[in-house]
Amino acid sequence: MEASTDMTVLRIAICEDTPSDAERLTSFISLSTMSSEVAQYVAGEKLLEVFERGMYDLIFLDVYMGALTGVQTAQRIRELDSQVVIVFTTTSDDFTREGYRLNAYKYLLKPLEADDVSDALELATLKRDKAQGAAINIVSEGKPVAVPMGDIIYVESRNRKSLVVTAAATFSTATSIDALEKMLPAPRFLRSHRSFIVNLDHVEDIDEDFAMDNGGRAYIRVKDFRAVKRAYDSYLFNTVRSSG
User: Fold this and answer.
1) Burial readout 47-79 (b: 16 or more C-beta within 10 A, e: otherwise)
2) Where in the chain are the domains?
3) What's the CATH number of domain 135-242, 2.40.50.1020, 1.20.1260.10, 3.30.70.20, 3.40.718.10?
4) What was the pLDDT predicted at 93?
5) Average pLDDT, the chain
6) pLDDT at residue 7, as a whole number
7) Which of 14, 18, 168, 175 is most buried (CB neighbours < 10 A)?
8) For the purposes of burial, counting CB atoms within 10 Å of the CB of 30, is it exposed (0-12), middle (13-18) or buried (19 or more)?
9) What's the topology of domain 10-132?
10) C-alpha span between 154 and 188 (Å, rounded)
């Protein structure tokens, strides 16, 4: 299966020879709000036949497969692609040392849990988006503008317009904040309030609201503060891991 060229889609490969385990993993991926495309392989050899650098953002590898183990498959993948996030799925953590050597993100012990799968999806999305240096395309003051995602500090909805705030300029657009939210991928971008979307890379501090590194403030819904704080803390943790 050819991987998608749509940069908003998380490209995922599952290499698993037990159908029930593959089905469980696929069902957890489908629960995510992230847009994804999943290809399934029943053996490491099948994956390696088609694999190319940059083909996938995330690969789930069963450690115990047939002639070629998940660890052996990962070793060959790493010879071609040093950036793709690799997650081992296994009934044992006997290969932990090999996982570190191959820069695997983590081991997921079977039976898999939804939270662990969600965490892997978030990390892969974060790593992909930062590597791409992607931009959003909007119309501001009647002119098309491509705004790099990394430059966006926050988006504010005001007077039926959306303000896309960067350090260099603020772009006013008729594009709704709901539409912009769909363009700005989680977990890097967080809808903290009905009127604000925040780039967590530009958060300087969090108290009752977000204090941004340009001196601005982005509101947080009072009832959602704990959930927003957890999302921010999780993002900081994954940022450290993705830079390793």
Assistant:
1) bbeebeeebbbbbbbbbbbeebbbbbbbeebbe
2) 10-132, 135-242
3) 2.40.50.1020
4) 64
5) 88
6) 56
7) 14
8) exposed
9) Rossmann fold (3.40.50)
10) 11
